[in-house]
Amino acid sequence: MRIDILTVLPQLLESPFSVSIMQRAKDKGHVDIHIHNIRDYSTSKHKNVDDYQYGGGAGMVMSIEPIATIIEKLRAERKYDEIIYMTPDGEVLEQSICNQLSLFENIMILCGHYKGVDERIREHYITQEISIGSYVLSGGELAAAVLVDAVVRLIPGVLNDETSALTDSFQDNLLSPPVYTRPPEFNGWKVPEVLLSGNPKEIDKWREQQALERTKTRRPDLLND
Ligand code: 6GU
Predict the structure, then answer these.
(1) pLDDT tens-digit readout, 170-220
(2) Spans of all domains in the chain
(3) What is the rounded CA–CA span in Å between residue 39 and residue 85?
(4) Which of 60, 62, 84, 86 has most ligand 1 atoms within 8 Å of its beta carbon, as the pocket-test mutant?
(5) I need a labelling partner for 135 at 20 to 30 A (CA). Which of 76, 142, 147, 175 fits?
(6) pTM of the model
């Protein structure tokens, strides 16, 4: 999968993709991430990427020209399955959206900033608008990093143990059961007996029960879907 990210703050996107699973996914050729600095495409004297909004009011608006220039350039090079705009008024991100995106060949992500982007970009280029929750971030970059992380780990071959993505919380609308590792006892706090039993059937049953219990108490909304 190829991912192109358009941003006015490329520095914010350096480290999230340079460590751990993301770096390994890049090294193994599962994903190719290209960060584009919108400012590089500004033709104004001072490399402006924003301007005052028509009709007045506080806050700047991301200008149409530099963004349209990059999108046109990239679209001429390959076909994009989705051109996504990260914005607090987008559809709230869920696992099902990540699953769908993980199947695509090429996606483009535009990070919103200031008061947002000139509406004509949304009307004429954007195919999907995504928010990562009901709170406001200073910009779409961290939201884009969240989206890319959630999507890339679903690409087959990215995780060592292919089943581990399938047993994630949310993948079956259930939260994950509790997990333990050595030692079997610490400060008198014991690991549940069943996990030490060596009985895979009993262990599976316990995990299912725990997952259901957790979901009922913490996220009952998931069970109603
Ligand atoms: Cl995608 N952008 C911004 N600026 N704030 C957000 C968001 C996105 N999702 C939740 N809050």
Answers:
(1) 878 999 999 999 999 999 999 999 999 999 999 999 999 999 999 999 999
(2) 2-152, 169-224
(3) 17
(4) 86
(5) 175
(6) 0.95
